[in-house]
Amino acid sequence: MRALIAAGGNARRLRPITYTINKHLIPLANKPMILFAIEHIARAGIKEIFINVNPGEKEIQQYVGDGSRWGARITYVEQTGGPKGVAHIIKNAEHFLRGEPFLFHLGDNIIVGELRHFVERFERENLDALFAFARVKDPQRFGVPVIENGKLLRIEEKPLVPKTDLAQTGIYFYNDSVFDAVKNIEPSSRGEYEISDANTYLIQAGRAVGWEEITGWWKDTGKPEDLLEGNQLLLNEVLQKESGIHGMIGPQVTIQGKVHIGKGTTVWDNVLIRGPVSIGENSTIKNSYIGPYSSIGNNCVIENTEIEHSVIMDYAEIKTGTRVVDSIIGKNAIVTSAKNSLPLGHKLIIGDNSQVEI
């Protein structure tokens, strides 16, 4: 079995962060989110991986490499013709995938648990397609299955009135029959080839289609609040295995709960860190509180600040003298107190699609 990871698109709902970084490289629990997908795929025994990227993409290749660190081989597939929907990604990669069953994994979806049992069921039951569903509080944002008497009838894309609270996750297993499906569907009202329509085509063509509900958690990271929740979920999972103090800790520092502190990081002078928290390498934390569900990147400086439930990316400098919560702060950002300069007031340099609370 092979795998195709979707890692293109523009991620407009995550601007301004995604003006300067590919969405799939946004760090959750201090790791680019696409790496979690690759790790799950490799642990399922799949070693031939294709990654769909935007034309001219270079960053993902630099971060991910050739796959050798996972014992896999990774090939990058540029999406031609621009973003035309999720089903078009499969159509675009047909040349690489035809002839073998494959897992299609959206690179911005994160899950707990393993994929191996999906692989085994797909092969054991000789299925044409296998879908994973999850219960969500806002199913109108997703493809929603219509199920009657346990039988899957179709998938409705972003219905105004969902018939269930189940949502189609970004995990799909297919054989070659999916290529007929993506060729025989029409663009939706928003001009995209919807994966829900391709899946419905397979169902109504009488193909052997299976489905099951994910019993753990699944998260689509389409909005800023989704990223923060994804960071929270992953910190709970990752720090069960990877917590540890590898930096320099001063005498007036209190560390509670599961906390990871990277090499070269200095924590000193009246600091309280209450996990789960992940702090990267070569950062400085001074006279501050770092609260639960926070990720602090590499080479950051945090002074005289309280941070909680936030993602702070590499090289950020935060010296606010106040409390920062539920925030995503990008690379090289500087956040300081208005009291440190004259005239007094809030000095703002804000780009497009920013959000600020004062």
Describe this structure in words.
This protein is of the alpha/beta class and 358 residues long. The protein folds into two domains: 2-223, Alpha-Beta Complex (Spore Coat Polysaccharide Biosynthesis Protein SpsA, Chain A), CATH 3.90.550; 243-340, UDP N-Acetylglucosamine Acyltransferase, domain 1 (3 Solenoid), CATH 2.160.10. It is 22% helix and 32% strand. It has helices at residues 17-20, 33-43, 59-64, 86-92, 94-97, 116-124, 177-183, 195-204, 224-242; strands at 2-6, 27-28, 31-32, 48-53, 73-78, 102-106, 109-111, 129-135, 143-148, 151-157, 166-174, 209-213, 218-220, 244-245, 248-249, 253-256, 259-261, 266-268, 271-274, 277-279, 284-286, 289-290, 294-296, 301-303, 306-308, 311-312, 317-319, 323-325, 328-329, 334-336. The chain has a seven-stranded mixed beta sheet with strand order 5-4-1-6-11-8-12, sandwiched between helices. Helix 4 (86-92) crosses helix 7 and helix 7 packs across helix 8. The relative contact order is 0.12. The model has no long low-confidence stretch (mean pLDDT 87).
Please write out the topology.
Layout: E1 2-6, H1 17-20, E2 27-28, E3 31-32, H2 33-43, E4 48-53, H3 59-64, E5 73-78, H4 86-92, H5 94-97, E6 102-106, E7 109-111, H6 116-124, E8 129-135, E9 143-148, E10 151-157, E11 166-174, H7 177-183, H8 195-204, E12 209-213, E13 218-220, H9 224-242, E14 244-245, E15 248-249, E16 253-256, E17 259-261, E18 266-268, E19 271-274, E20 277-279, E21 284-286, E22 289-290, E23 294-296, E24 301-303, E25 306-308, E26 311-312, E27 317-319, E28 323-325, E29 328-329, E30 334-336
Parallel strand pairs: 1-4, 1-6, 4-5, 8-12, 14-17, 15-18, 16-19, 17-20, 18-21, 19-22, 20-23, 21-24, 22-25, 23-26, 24-27, 25-28, 26-29, 27-30
Antiparallel strand pairs: 2-3, 6-11, 7-13, 8-11, 9-10
Helix pairs in contact: 4-7, 7-8
